[in-house]
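User: I've been trying to design a sequence by hand for this structure and keep getting stuck. Would you show me what you'd pick, starting by listing the structure so we're on the same page?

Assistant: Good idea, let's start from the same input. This is the structure you sent:
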């Protein structure tokens, strides 16, 4: 894949998903390098899938009633046709995107790696801060007030990830990292609960 296509895909990811989407993709690539060490996987497949796996959840491209995994696969298929990738490579990218939230056990290794990496990125301090970064706010001057689901909602979503995400990972290295990140996340959430007097 040429550098210009990488730039195009990165630019599309950033244009519609902002810095958050690009950084999430970059973290997934780094996680796959760690959990996939010694495994025979295609880094190009991972790079592409990491950047496009959440396109279907971005406001510009999401569709009501369509899961973001299915929508992301649909959007990625359009881009992959333009790339003129070998069919086998393109199919592995699409498979990884489609199964990044589960069901990847009997799929290609890239699908398993992306699934585990995505679950891991929702754990630990990164996972915790991701939830709180999504809290919408309103404000004036330098003061902002959480609106919508607010801090309580972010706290509940983080607790949900802490409970669910460790069960989603399957690969041995992933399980070890999940255990460490879950411990860190649990400690941070417990401290948050104490310091907020349990009022969240």
């Amino acid at each position: 894949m040429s550098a210009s296509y990488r730039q195009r895909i990165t630019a599309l990811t950033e244009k519609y998903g902002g810095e958050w989407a690009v950084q999430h993709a970059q973290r997934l690539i780094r996680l796959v390098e760690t959990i996939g060490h010694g495994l025979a996987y295609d880094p190009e497949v991972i790079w592409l899938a990491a950047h496009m796996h959440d396109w279907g959840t971005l406001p510009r491209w999401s569709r009501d009633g369509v899961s973001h995994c299915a929508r992301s696969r649909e959007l990625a298929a359009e881009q992959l046709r333009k790339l003129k990738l070998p069919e086998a490579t393109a199919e592995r990218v699409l498979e990884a995107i489609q199964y990044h939230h589960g069901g990847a056990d009997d799929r290609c290794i890239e699908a398993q790696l992306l699934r585990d990496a995505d679950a891991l990125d929702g754990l630990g301090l990164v996972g915790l801060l991701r939830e709180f970064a999504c809290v919408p706010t309103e404000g004036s001057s330098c003061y902002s007030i959480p609106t919508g689901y607010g801090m309580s909602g972010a706290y509940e979503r983080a607790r949900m990830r802490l409970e669910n995400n460790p069960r989603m990972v399957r690969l041995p290295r992933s399980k070890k990292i999940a255990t460490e990140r879950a411990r860190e996340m649990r400690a941070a959430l417990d401290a948050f609960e104490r310091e907020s007097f349990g009022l969240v």
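That's my pick for every position. To get oriented when you compare it with your attempt: The first strand starts at residue 137 and ends at 140. The chain has eight helices and two strands.
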